């Protein structure tokens, strides 16, 4: 029966200790990841909004200029998204070395594709941004829109690769079933994660842009046809509606999570976060009802509340991960300790035996035996032939062995053997002559 | 240590991908970031001091190219080195991360400021309209130049460490890892190389941004002369630095690794081309010197195409330098600590006595028998050889044995087993075989079968993994047995 069931692999860990206390790494992972994902959200959400708004701009020019203004923010946010991603990557590499690298390897082709795909997406966003004022009419405008669309589609796809990996690392018991990226997508709850992430991207972008265009000092001269309160209201609405949808997508994600890491604590944190989210949404809808003169006055309150919601969800995510991997981590630790104890014992016994003072000529000759046989040509000429050439001249063999040339076109060149030492080489040479002479 | 094996047969196992990504990263970031930022900042300062808006405008235009390339291909290939090493050498990068955590952490902070500064510097350039703002803007450029150099200064420690960890092998201390013996010479070498290539790059791109002079307006010609004359100084001075630090660097490389250099510079088959390589190297240096001297002389303005010669030669030389550096490190991935296949030096004897299959996780069998010999051999290949060799693709074991025994002759299995056991003595760039006698036999059986029926070997990313039943260890109780 067991043949048909997957076995949980229990690998052994690296022998080097963690360079920092684990709690510090956990703290860094949590905080750095949230900063990273914020910029990723703004990059992904921003490029989706740009595509839609530029399309609306075909009917009404004011949407086009709004899309252009948003496009200006994406290229900066995308640079920060990449650079802020390194911190959490550093932490996850250290904290979950065995699970993380294994998940990467199992989805390897897709994991590697991240590099060219992100480069292409970034180049397209630059092209899109810097051709906005020149590709304006007819076919050129269509090309411009397609450039933006292509970048947005890439930004829609790339997160799937990351999600497949972070999901897969949580379920070592499923690893034996995985055969590449697409099969990893079907394991666990990648798709609910994806929808939750996409919604968060749009909500965060909406909130960011409500603040960005709502700033007192922001320059709206390029945005003819919009007033500041109108922009605030528009992006607040985007944020509010998408966040409302999260009350469906969030539970969908939670209830489809593999049961391995579900604990009461996880439920507690997630539902606490959701309650705070409901409060945030209530404040947000209240803000939307305000008149133009005061809309935006609660902006920082909303941002603060949202930050706590996100922090709560991030912590819940970590608590789930720890619970899901607790037994796997313990098993790895035990196997690793077991292995290194046995290794240490072996090495102790091994070093107790004093090394042989000198290798025997026969042992030294083993360095040559793979290529030189007594009477047949293996890789190099047989000993019988060598004995003829160097009869009475072992020094000649030594000289050759230290700096071999190439005499026979049909054979590969001999590697230099100087590392064996002059004395050893002479010993070998004498033995070779002896053996070669004995063949006849 | 013990990971599913990502493996690409047609690309020498796949490590070529790390090489391509890393070389691209270096080729972009040495000239375009480390070298170009200080030179461009200097141009901006000079333009401000001597009231030459044309030079300022030129610096801004070149910065646009640098900005686009470094924030896309430059940044992502840097991340790509991590992503790809996590696939091909997780044991090596995992260990390096534990040793260099603080180095990498600091580099990350520096890198964040570098990205913020390049965005700030480039995007605010046009908004500068007063001398006070200009001074501040120049200071941003200076900060950017320092940060860009610092990221390299931090990462070079890791590169030097992998070749020669120095006293870290005894102390296991972070500071000893950072200040490894190859650190200072390599850093100096790269700094001057970056300046030298950046100067040629700026010189070259400047020609696209300066229009041809007309009879009435000689300003474009004046601007060209200015850039050619200044940049040729930078090339000559940097070249002296490259030469001095390069010599020091070479003298610090361990003797045993220097022995690898003739193979590292080219491939094993082309060892006899060593002489030609040196000639080519000489021509590269000569092309830089020639262009710089012509530029310095100011007699004629160097034509645009002529600059392509040192540029291409420089790219070729740096690319080759990285390749040679990577190869010479062998048989180690971390000198005197970990072999290229991820085996630690201190576990070698243990594995040779116990067998490597017994202690690996992702294998089909733990013990070699007559019936499972070929399957075991394949797993041994994956564990011991696949980080450098392929089965039927680039750098394949079949090619290697064909070169030794002849492609059309039978290969003697006993001789092959003998070779495998002693290969680290005759091919000093190869690690010792980390398995027992039976496993060497299994490997030979696998290679012989491969020869009879060449089949591509697939990695865990397509084939998935198979796990042999867990080893019965006395320390494992019923609760800690892996769940079924």
Automatic annotation (TrEMBL), chain A:
Annotated signal sequence range: none
Domain Cytochrome c, first and last residues per copy: 356-436
Key words, A-Z: Heme, Iron, Membrane, Metal-binding, Transmembrane, Transmembrane helix
Organism superkingdom: Bacteria
A Pfam family it matches: Cytochrom_C
TM regions (residue ranges): 23-56, 76-96, 108-127, 148-171, 191-213, 234-254, 266-285, 297-316
Membrane recorded as keyword: yes
Keyword Transmembrane: yes
PROSITE patterns, per database record: CYTC (PS51007)
Family matches, as Gene3D superfamilies: Cytochrome c-like domain
GO molecular function, one term: heme binding
InterPro entries named among the record's database cross-references: Cyt_c-like_dom, Cyt_c-like_dom_sf
Coiled-coil blocks: none
Name used for this protein in its record: Cytochrome c
Organism of origin: Prosthecobacter vanneervenii
Automatic annotation (TrEMBL), chain B:
One function term, GO molecular function aspect: heme binding
Residue ranges constituting the Cytochrome c domain according to the UniProt record: 372-451
Domain of life where this protein originates: Bacteria
TM regions (residue ranges): 16-40, 61-82, 102-123, 143-163, 187-210, 231-250, 270-293, 305-321
Keywords noted in UniProt: Heme, Iron, Membrane, Metal-binding, Transmembrane, Transmembrane helix
Gene3D superfamilies: Cytochrome c-like domain
Protein name per Swiss-Prot or TrEMBL: Mono/diheme cytochrome c family protein
Source species: Prosthecobacter vanneervenii
């Amino acid at each position: 029966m067991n043949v048909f069931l997957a076995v949980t692999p229990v690998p052994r860990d690296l022998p080097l200790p963690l360079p920092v206390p684990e709690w510090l790494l956990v703290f860094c992972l949590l905080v750095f990841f949230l900063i990273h994902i914020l910029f990723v959200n703004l990059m992904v959400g921003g490029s989706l909004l740009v595509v839609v708004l530029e399309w609306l701009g075909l009917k009404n020019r004011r949407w086009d200029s709004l899309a252009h203004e948003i496009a200006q923010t994406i290229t900066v946010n995308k640079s920060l998204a990449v650079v802020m991603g390194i911190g959490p990557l550093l932490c996850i590499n250290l904290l979950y070395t065995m699970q993380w690298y294994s998940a990467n390897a199992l989805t390897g082709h897709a994991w590697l594709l991240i590099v060219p795909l992100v480069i292409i997406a970034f180049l397209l966003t630059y092209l899109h941004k810097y051709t906005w004022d020149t590709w304006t009419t007819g076919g050129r405008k269509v090309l411009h829109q397609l450039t933006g669309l292509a970048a947005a589609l890439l930004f829609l796809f790339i997160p799937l690769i990351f999600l497949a990996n972070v999901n897969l690392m949580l379920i070592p018991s499923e690893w034996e079933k995985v055969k590449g990226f697409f099969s990893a997508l079907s394991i666990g709850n990648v798709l609910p994660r994806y929808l939750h992430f996409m919604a968060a991207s749009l909500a965060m972008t909406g909130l960011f842009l409500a603040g960005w265009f709502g700033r007192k000092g922001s320059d709206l001269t390029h945005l003819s046809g919009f007033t500041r309160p109108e922009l605030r209201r528009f992006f607040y609405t985007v944020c509010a509606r998408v966040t409302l949808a999260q009350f469906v997508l969030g539970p969908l994600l939670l209830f489809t999570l593999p049961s391995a890491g579900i604990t009461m604590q996880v439920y507690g944190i997630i539902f606490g976060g959701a309650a705070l989210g409901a409060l945030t949404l209530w404040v947000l809808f209240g803000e939307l009802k305000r008149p133009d003169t005061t809309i935006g006055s609660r902006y920082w309150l909303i941002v603060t509340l949202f930050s706590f919601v996100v922090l709560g969800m991030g912590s819940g995510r970590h608590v789930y991960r720890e619970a899901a991997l607790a037994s796997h981590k313990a098993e790895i630790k035990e196997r690793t300790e077991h292995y290194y104890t046995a290794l240490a014992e072996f090495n102790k016994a091994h070093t107790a035996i004093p090394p042989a003072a000198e290798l025997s000529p026969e042992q030294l000759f083993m360095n040559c035996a793979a290529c030189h046989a007594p009477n047949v040509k293996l890789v190099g000429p047989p000993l019988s032939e060598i004995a003829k050439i160097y009869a009475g001249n072992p020094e000649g063999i030594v000289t050759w062995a230290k700096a071999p040339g190439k005499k026979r076109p049909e054979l590969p060149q001999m590697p230099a053997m100087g590392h064996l030492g002059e004395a050893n080489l002479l010993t070998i040479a004498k033995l070779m002559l002896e053996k070669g002479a004995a063949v006849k | 240590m013990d990971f599913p094996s990502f493996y690409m047969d047609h690309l020498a196992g796949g490590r070529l991908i790390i090489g391509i990504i890393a070389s691209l990263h270096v080729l972009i970031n040495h000239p375009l970031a480390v070298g170009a930022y200080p030179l461009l900042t200097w141009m901006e300062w000079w333009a401000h001091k001597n009231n030459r808006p044309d030079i300022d405008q030129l610096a801004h235009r070149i910065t646009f190219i640098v900005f686009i390339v470094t924030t896309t291909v430059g940044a992502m290939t840097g991340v790509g080195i991590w992503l790809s090493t996590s696939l091909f050498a997780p044991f090596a990068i995992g260990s390096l991360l534990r040793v260099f955590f603080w180095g990498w952490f600091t580099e990350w902070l520096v890198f964040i400021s570098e990205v913020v500064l390049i965005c700030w510097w480039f995007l605010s350039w046009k908004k500068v309209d007063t001398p006070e703002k200009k001074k501040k803007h120049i200071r941003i450029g200076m900060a950017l130049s320092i940060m860009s150099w610092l990221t390299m200064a931090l990462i070079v420690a890791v590169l030097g460490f992998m070749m020669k960890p120095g006293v870290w092998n005894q102390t296991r201390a972070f500071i000893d890892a950072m200040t490894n013996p190859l650190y200072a010479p390599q850093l100096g070498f790269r700094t001057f190389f970056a300046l030298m290539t950046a100067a040629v790059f700026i010189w070259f791109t400047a020609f696209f941004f300066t229009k041809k002079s007309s009879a009435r307006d000689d300003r474009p010609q004046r601007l060209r002369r200015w850039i050619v004359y200044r940049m040729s100084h930078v090339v000559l001075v940097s070249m002296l630095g490259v030469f001095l630090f390069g010599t020091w660097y070479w003298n610090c490389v361990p003797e045993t690794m220097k022995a690898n250099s003739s193979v590292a510079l080219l491939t094993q088959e082309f060892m006899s081309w060593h002489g030609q390589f040196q000639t080519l190297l000489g021509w590269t240096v000569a092309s830089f010197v020639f262009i710089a001297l012509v530029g310095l002389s100011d007699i004629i303005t160097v034509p645009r195409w002529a600059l392509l010669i040192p540029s291409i030669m420089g790219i070729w030389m740096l690319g080759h330098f990285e390749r040679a550096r990577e190869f010479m490190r062998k048989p180690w991935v971390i000198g005197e600590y970990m072999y290229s296949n991820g085996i630690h030096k201190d576990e070698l004897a243990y594995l040779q006595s116990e067998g490597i299959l017994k202690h690996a996780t992702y294998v089909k069998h733990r013990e070699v028998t007559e019936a499972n010999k070929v399957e075991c051999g394949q797993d041994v290949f994956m564990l011991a050889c696949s980080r450098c060799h392929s089965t039927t693709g680039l750098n394949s074991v079949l090619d290697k044995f064909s070169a030794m025994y002849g492609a059309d002759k039978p290969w003697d299995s006993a001789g092959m087993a003998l070779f495998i056991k002693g290969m680290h003595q005759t091919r000093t760039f190869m690690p010792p075989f980390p398995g027992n006698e039976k496993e060497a036999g299994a490997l030979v059986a696998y290679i012989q079968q491969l020869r009879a029926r060449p089949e591509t070997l697939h990695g865990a990313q397509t084939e998935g993994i198979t796990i042999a039943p867990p080893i019965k260890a006395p320390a494992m109780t019923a609760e800690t047995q892996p769940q079924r």
